[in-house]
Structures are given as C-alpha cells and as structure tokens.
Amino acid sequence: MTKTLLLLPGDGIGPEAMAEVEKLVAVMNKEESAGFETEKGLVGGAAYDAHGAAISEDDMAKAMAADAVLFGAVGGPKWDDVPYEVRPEAGLLRLRKDMELFANLRPAICYPALASASSLKPDVVEGLDILIVRELTGGVYFGEPKEIIDLGNGQKRGIDTQVYDTFEIERIAGVAFDLARTRGNKVCSMEKRNVMKSGVLWNEVVSAVHKASYSDVELTHMLADAGGMQMVRWPKQFDVIVTDNLFGDMLSDVAAMLTGSLGMLPSASLGAPDAKSGKRKALYEPVHGSAPDIAGQGAANPIAMIASFAMCLRYSFEMVEQADRLEKAIADVLESGIRTGDIMADGCRKVSTSEMGDEIAAK
Amino acid sequence: MTKTLLLLPGDGIGPEAMAEVEKLVAVMNKEESAGFETEKGLVGGAAYDAHGAAISEDDMAKAMAADAVLFGAVGGPKWDDVPYEVRPEAGLLRLRKDMELFANLRPAICYPALASASSLKPDVVEGLDILIVRELTGGVYFGEPKEIIDLGNGQKRGIDTQVYDTFEIERIAGVAFDLARTRGNKVCSMEKRNVMKSGVLWNEVVSAVHKASYSDVELTHMLADAGGMQMVRWPKQFDVIVTDNLFGDMLSDVAAMLTGSLGMLPSASLGAPDAKSGKRKALYEPVHGSAPDIAGQGAANPIAMIASFAMCLRYSFEMVEQADRLEKAIADVLESGIRTGDIMADGCRKVSTSEMGDEIAAK
Ligand SMILES: CC(C)[C@H](C(=O)O)[C@@H](O)C(=O)O
Ligand SMILES: CC(C)[C@H](C(=O)O)[C@@H](O)C(=O)O
User: What does the entry list as the binding residues for Mg(2+) (chains A, B) (predicted)?
Assistant: First the structure.
C-alpha cells in the first residue's frame, strides 16, 4: 500500500529541516519497503513569490488528497509588508481550516540530555512530559466579523470574534480524554470563564463530555491566566491540557520554552476520522518558526521536523514501532553528545543540520 | 488637604491584607499628618451576600468620588455557582469600566531576598524589573456581542468580541512610552497581528504614536506567543511591555510567577487625567487572588497589598518619598529574613500577616 506524503518545506530553515526527513523517507523506502510516495509544494513566502498567494490552489488540492502533510515553517522579514490576505501565515491557516484539522497535539517533553538548557531549575523540568491539545479551527482565529473599519476622524476600529459551538468543544474534548487514557489519565481544561462567554460554554461542554463518557479520567478546570502561572511554577502537575485556539497558542509556546527543547518539539494537527475509511486528515509541523536569521547555513536543528515525522508515522500510518524507534534514535543521539548549535553545550560535538540528520538515520 | 481612600477588601485574604494597610494609614496620619480619610465598602462575594450584586450602587458612587480605591481580592468556592452577571469578578470589571481605568501597571520585580524562590534559575531572574502596561477597559473583556446563543438541537454558540479603537491604543501606548522614559527607555509592544485584525491595528497605532511623539524611546514589536516564550527564556531583555487586555492578563501572570514573588506584587489601574484638576481616577490591587484556602488564618502575605498602597502614594498623591520609603521597608524586612508562610525559607523567621504588617510599619 502506498502512503502519500505532501512535503511543504516553506521558508527560512524549513527546506533544510525537511531535507533531513526526505533522507529518512528514502532510507525507510529502501530498507523496509515502507512505500512512501512524496510530492512537494510551496507554502508561505515561497508560494507568494511564485504564485502571489500563500498557497496555490494546486497545492491545496494535493494537501487535501495526501495521506499526510509535512509542513516546515513560514515567514521572514522579506514578506513583512505583503498584504494581510497573502501573508505567509495565511497558507498555514488555510491548510488548517480547509483540511478541518481541529485537533493540534503539542507534546512538551524535556529531553534528559537537555534539562540543563532550560531557563527553569532542573528539578522543575526534568522528566517533564505534558501534552497540550489545542483547538485549531475555531475561536478568534476564524470567527467573523474580523476586520478593520474606518470610523472617520482618523479613528479606526479593529474587530476579531471568538466563536465556539458546542460540537467544536465536544470533539476536541473527546480527543483530549482519549489521549489522556493512553498517558497519565488526567485532563486539565483551561479557559477564562470569569470573563468570556465562550469560556463559560467551554467549561460546561468539557464537563458534560467528561460526565457522559470519560468519568474514569481525572478532569480539572483552571483559568487560563492561572494556568500560565502554574505552567511556570510546577509544570509536572499537568498531564493533558485542553484549551482553545488562542490560549493554546500562548500556553504551548510557554510550555515549549520550559523544556529547553524548543528546537526539538513536534506537533500534529488532526482532522476527524473519515466516516468510510476511518482515516484522519493530518498535518505535522515543528513548533519552532522559520528562523530566517540562520537559514541556509546548515545550522538549523532538524530534530523538531524529524520528531514531527515520527508523530506522522504514529498517527497517520500506525507505524508505532517505527515511531518509537525514531524517537529513541533522537534521544540516543542527544545522549551521545551530538548537538546542533542551538543546543550546544560543553563537552558536546557540534554538527550541521545534515550531519544531525545522518546520525539519527544511522541509529 | 484631605485625601479620600475607598477600601474594598473583598473576599478571602483580602480583608486581612487590607487591615495591614489600614495600620499604615493610621501611622501616617498620626506621625506625618498625612490627612488620609478612609471609607470602606463591599465588593465581590461579600457584596453579593449583602446586596445580591458584586458591588452596590452606593459603593460604586463612593469609588467614583474617592481620590483612590484600594482593592483586596474577590472570589472563592462559595460563589462558584452564582449567576454570571453577579459573580465576584463582575464587581472588579465594573469598577475598571465605569471608572475608565484603562491603564493597568503591573511591575514584575524580583526581590533579591526571594530570587531563589523562583522556579527559574537565579541568574535568569535576579535583578529582574519589568513593567507590564496592560490595556484594561477594552478588548475581549468588554466587546459586544458577548453571549451564549441557543442554536437548538443541543447546540449552543459562545461569542466574545475583541474590539479596539485607535484612541484606546493611542492612550495606552502613551502611558507606556511615558513610563519607559522614567525607566530603561524601552517599550516592547505585543499582539498577534499575524492572526488578529485588532493586532494589525494595535501594531500600526503604537508605531504611529512612537513616530509622532516618542522617537527617543526604543520600540520593538513581538508576537504575543513569542513574547510569552521570551519572557520565560530571558525576561531581562524587557523593560516596559505594552499589550492588550487579554494578552496582558496572561503575560502579567506569567511574569509575576517568574519573579518568585507572586504574593508580593502590586498593581495600579489608572484613568485619564481629569481635564480640570489633572487628577487620575485610580484603583490599586495586589496581583494575587483571594486564596480562600488560607483565608482567616493570619497566614496571608500582606506585602502585595502594602506595595499596592505604595503605588497609590506614588501615582495618586505624588508622595514619592513616602512611596520609596515604604518600598524600601518591604525590601529591608525581607532582607532581614522575616517571612510569611508562602515565602518561608531555611533560616528565616516565620510571622503572621499582622506581624509582617507591624514589621514594615516599624521600618
Ligand atoms: C504562524 C501562526 C499563525 C501560528 C498560530 O498563531 O497558530 C503559530 O504561532 C503556531 O502556533 O502554529
Ligand atoms: C479576576 C479577573 C476578572 C481578572 C482579569 O481577568 O482581569 C484577574 O485575572 C486580573 O488579572 O486582574
């Protein structure tokens, strides 16, 4: 059975990081007859330069048809002044929305070899393993009206709308509870119900889903601002966190930074299982950005991209054993003191993007 | 000249903490003829229990008339199920809105004596002194529509609206730039212009204010999610941060937690200068909450409340020397190893709320 992958390397360090995944795919096809078929497309600034849009219709169609999309990173100073509608991020947001990738899984794990790289005390982050489940197709990212109105007199009004419907909260809560059962069996739901009506509804629906189908899982609720505090104070209190699109954006970035492993963290964005085939549409991307300042120098850390591919093996192709092996290879390479510049430490050996990829492939 | 203060102790540890400020006021009236006249009112759950509202019209009128309002904390499990409109927080939100307290100043400083209490490495937080200037009367907190609609079929829709007008952004930017000039002369503005139209407008207006009147101040822009990351990575890169109501809520809580001094941090919420008198309406409150679990035991740390009173001296009464003295007294007491339970450390002397107040008053 062939497995189709659409590779969208994007901008900045995206292409360099993606090249290391391409190596792995080639190795797996050759040594294990894994049967991956890859296509490549453009997204972000690269797509804007080629087509004047942040992703072409053709590449969107390929994304919709692929078994999984691997996404690098988008953006850079070159496109800071392009119109809002075609800014690099618009390509990513369209992929999320059109593919209905409502569930964004962002594991924040602290690799033992990197605990000392965190700005937090080692005992606070050592062994940290939390999973943020972020709603990705709703909330203030997509609600209408979203506009700037000219009020005259030199005054403008900027408007964004946060909207959540019951079904959107139900399905993301379901994903969080299901995943909790495979881990520490705890979910903490975060919103601002003391200020936002969408937060009131969020709280109510998550509680109802819990009561109806997941009473074996421990559920707690936290206000999102207190959640941010607790994340910094003692992150190990959390197992799975479920939250909305905007809070998830903020909280997952804070969580990523805690681990000291920012350049290493992957994410998966999943749709609902197809009624017939049971397959989910899916996109996998590193949590880090396009890092235009170091692009093209072979200095980028490809681990987040490679770990995103490991999530792809796990969630899109049920290649659990291979995913485990790949994740172990990453940890082993780090353990053996091989580092890209961003995570360099005393006594370690500094390698390039491509050497890091080779080392992991070799393991 | 008399100076009128309205004290709104609120719920939980609010009253205990406020009692220590009352001591200080009495001392200052007696020893320095400071001329404070205090009145007391109810807010939050306490007001709900007495009047069925989170603040009475009578107390609102007193707040509008006072030179300054000192606010303790609101909320607790007792009121978790009261209707949304009269929940404890509604009292605070109404005070902010009706008094037009658009500028919320949240200093995050790390007391040297407490640097080791932070979950961050000491070198990351030692000497930290940042000021978050949060917009407080706009954004998603107050925008309309804000409602839950019943869509039938068991589906509901929660809606909140983020709205910012040019003038709202201009005035908060002005406050941030003015304050930066009295400090490190740097402002970092945070929004999500890559996703939110209000963020696009925010960015544009802050830049315009900078260009027109504050080009001597260094201005940078950061996406709010990246800002959260950078706050955890290396917070000392910041001097003044200016941001909207919701991002300010999240980011200031994270910043507070970094310092290890959460129970010690004050805030000031200021209105525009009155056209005639030049006086600003003002409310001062600790950053911490009502901590119902330790209320009534004399275990609360009154320092945040006392430091809020110091901000009151500084910003409402231009008693700069007294404010400096009070802030120094707090640092000295901490330096001398006197601690409430929340910040207890080896070799320190543990004291009650009221002993801590006495020690500071004595200094
Ligand atoms: C690039 C941007 C639109 C995006 C977001 O805000 O969702 C990014 O920050 C992320 O977290 O994936
Ligand atoms: C109590 C609550 C309404 C409030 C807010 O969200 O603004 C609090 O978190 C704060 O930061 O002052």
Answer: 225, 249, 253
Sequence-separated (6 or more) residues with CB below 8 Å from residue A128: A108, A109, A110, A235, A236, A258, A259
Q: What is the pLDDT of residue B306?
A: 97
Using CB atoms within 10 Å of the CB of residue B341, give its burial: 0 to 12 exposed, 13 to 18 middle, 19+ buried.
Answer: middle
Q: Mean pLDDT over all residues of chain A? A: 96
| Domain A1-105+262-363: CATH architecture, name and number where available | 3-Layer(aba) Sandwich (3.40)
pLDDT at B261: 79
How would residue A103 be classed by pLDDT, with cut points 50, 70 and 90? very high
Q: Give me the residues of chain B with pLDDT under 50, please.
A: none
Lookup result for tokens 């350049």: A263
Contact of A120 with A114, CB cutoff 8 Å: no
* Cut 0.85: pTM above it: yes
Share of chain B above pLDDT 70, in %: 100
Report the pLDDT averaged over residues A320-326: 96
Q: CA distances (Å), A210 to each of A171, A187, A217, B94, in order? A: 12, 10, 8, 34
Residue B238 neighbours by CB under 8 Å, 6+ apart = B130, B186, B188, B230, B231
Q: Which of B242, B96, B246 is nearest to A139 (CA)?
A: B246
* CATH class entry, domain B129-258: alpha beta
The set of residues, in sequence order, having a beta carbon less than 8 Å from that of A160 and lying 6+ positions away, is A140, A143, A146, B161, B162, B196, B197, B198, B199
Domain boundaries, chain B: 1-104+265-363, 129-258
Question: Is residue A307 a contact partner of residue A265, using CB atoms and an 8 Å limit?
Answer: yes
The DSSP line for B227-239 is HHHHHHH-GGG-S
Residue A68 has pLDDT above 90, yes or no: yes
- Nearest chain B residue (CA) to A89: B194
Give the model's pLDDT for residue B363.
82
Of the candidates A120, A167, A254, which has its C-beta nearest B120's C-beta? A120
pLDDT at A262 over 90: no
Distance from CA of B193 to the nearest CA of A (A): 9
In CATH terms, the superfamily for domain B1-104+265-363 is Isopropylmalate Dehydrogenase (3.40.718.10)
Residues of B recognised as catalytic:
141, 192, 225, 249, 253
Of chain A residues 100-119, which have a CB less than 8 A from chain B?
119
pLDDT on residue B357: 92
